[in-house]
Amino acid sequence: MAARCILVFLLFILAINLSYQYNNTKFPPLNLYIGTDGDGFGAGSLPLGVQSPYGALRLGPDTSNTMDIPIIFNHLAGYHYSDSHINIFSHTHMFGAGVVDYGEVGIIPVQIDSIKHLQAMISKRNGYRSAFQHEREVVEPGYYQVYLDTHKINVELTATEQVGIHRYTYDKIKNKHHVILIDNSYTLQANVCTESHIKIDSINHELTGLIHFDGSLSGRFGGVTTYFVITLSNLTQFGTWNHGQITEGQTEIDGCSSGAYIILPDEQEQVTMYVGISFVSIEQARTNLKIQTNTLQSFDSMRTIVQQKWLDELARFEVSADWDRDAEIKFNTAIVHSLSSPTIWDESNGVYLGYDGKVHTKPDYMQHVYTDLSIWDIHRTQIPFINFHDAQRGNDIIHSIMINVEQGGDLPKWPLANGYTGCMFGSHADVLISDLIMKKENDNNLDLKEVVQALRKVANQNQAHDSRWDPATYIQYKYVPYDMEKTSAPLTISYAYDDWAIANVMNAAGLVDEAKEYYERGTWFEHVFDNKTNFFCPKDKAGNFHCPSNELEFLDPFDKRYIEELTIFFERGQPWKTTLLPNPYYWPGNEHNLFSVWQFNYANRSDLTQKYARWLLNHAYPNAPDGLPGNDDYGTMSAWYIFTSMGFYPLSGSSTYLIGSPAFDRIKISRNNGKCNLLINVHNNSPTNLYVQRVLLNNETLSTFPFIDHINHFKCSNDNQSTIQLDFFMSSTPVFSLDK
């Protein structure tokens, strides 16, 4: 009896410890609903659910409104905060992109009265969906919980890099049977499945299968195949369906309207299910599942492991502002979003599917291979932020781009999975490479000869994939002729920027004369500048301009009209309350505009950068589900918020940062795996004290204000745990740059 009492007591203590562990998770204040709302051009398009940092498996609910009317632009990542129903839980998602792709291997638990009831569910579109309420959701990094009101089931999710772990707890209802539906042919984007298969193996307690889909981007290179292995403890009653018709006891089915179901024993009220995915093979999915769950550890153990990864990452970032707790929440949330992409592409044991369609093993000097690089977006903020705080990861991303070149032959624009998509324009991989090299953060494994060769090719030749527009004609005219390509002006400006970045790399490689040629090409944007209108305009082969009324005006930064026009740009943009449609003036959700607020620094009016940057932090990024001004685009908007709230911002492709107005009293960032710290102390900061009086760097006046250099000021030294300290002194009175 005594031994039994002791056992009960120990179990009670264990339960308390587990409860304490989960109720006191030491995450900083967060609002992970940010970016899940907004309409039209203002939709953040972020998925809600679970993943490991940078993980390929992004598991979460795909939702719909009460009337089940699909609004595609609001559901590019599956979840929308305004919705009332969960259609299904799928295992991969785009991350804040303005296009739909991925979203496959759909699973949902249900309760049924009979097989006839189940037949009715699957015979119509989203017939098994369930109502839900935000009040019964729990959203944390690495953990998601929701109660399905229709089916009376509590759903819990966690995820490793390629494994999703589900735990379902069914309410006990008389005469109800506990069922799991596996919609193996499901895709978030309708009608893109081209092949699907599922097989039930009751002896080994697993389901295996695949789906091939041609999504909006993946369809441009022949589509993607996702393989899966699902395991759970009880597989005694099951069946399949095809085109809405159930076949009880059947173990295998093919087709893009097919699926499988599992009926649990009535007495089993809780089940844990493991879903391993792979882009290589079913066997690799099984390997991922085994290795990444340590041979099927419990849900609670896996949750602890995954959430500890997030805690370790988030512990490197500390901010505080007693006068603006919302700013702390928004910053921490932006960090989570930034740490969620790009996508780790290598799987357990380092294998991955290459751009040549073959299976490869990652090099030993890389921690991971990455894909889903929304380069047109992320070259501005997200990748410079990764280079700033995690140079190892920044190197892996550039090595991944060079792997694209090695296996596929060309530099990519927007690589997804293992393919070239041709999405967007420019060749901004040039800028990503320049950013790492100009900051002198590139490692010794980056072969500059191979880099230079790839840059020469993209700038001067037609590539088989992701080519610039007709390089020979561009070089002949020194601009893109309007009568040959309607996007004449933006393409010319983009290529000039890219060539400037190439020049930086050439210079770093010691190719000084060649660098001069590309620096000259970097000025070709001037050829689409119309002196009569002071606008950048399309220009035809004969040299005639075709200026619409809304082209970008170009003024010398030291022309007083530059400041006046840029001020009007912001002042007239502020009253624009909706993000549904583009703002005709400053549009914070448009990547083209992200750098605009920093341009005042070049006109010696850094006070206006500080004024409008602080306004944008408070108004364009609220602490709310619609807290992003547009698609996050794989961390682009989140990284903009992070940099701006820290008080400095990158000139991408260079080692330069521009100073703004920090939103906190104290900021501390542990960089490069703890190699050094950046400590920012902000004195006399407040909502009204938003102007910078002066800045100290390591207790000495920053003589380069309003600019900071990564190499001279921010680069980690060889001393372990070295600290770089910035002190901002704030005031309610503007101080012009020349006075500092």
Automatic annotation (TrEMBL):
GO BP, sorted A to Z: carbohydrate metabolic process; glycoprotein catabolic process
Organism domain of life: Eukaryota
A GO cellular component annotation in the UniProt record: cytosol
InterPro entries: 6-hairpin_glycosidase_sf, GH-type_carb-bd, GH92_N, Glyco_hydro_92, PNGase
Glycosyl hydrolase family 92 N-terminal domain residues: 31-278
Signal peptide coordinates: 1-21
GO terms of molecular function: carbohydrate binding; peptide-N4-(N-acetyl-beta-glucosaminyl)asparagine amidase activity
Any Pfam family the entry gives: Glyco_hydro_92
UniProt domain Glycosyl hydrolase family: residue ranges: 284-550, 561-730
Alphabetic keyword roster: Signal
UniProt-listed PANTHER family: PEPTIDE N-GLYCANASE PNGASE -RELATED (PTHR12143), PUTATIVE-RELATED (PTHR12143:SF43)
Name of the protein in its database record: Alpha-1,2-mannosidase
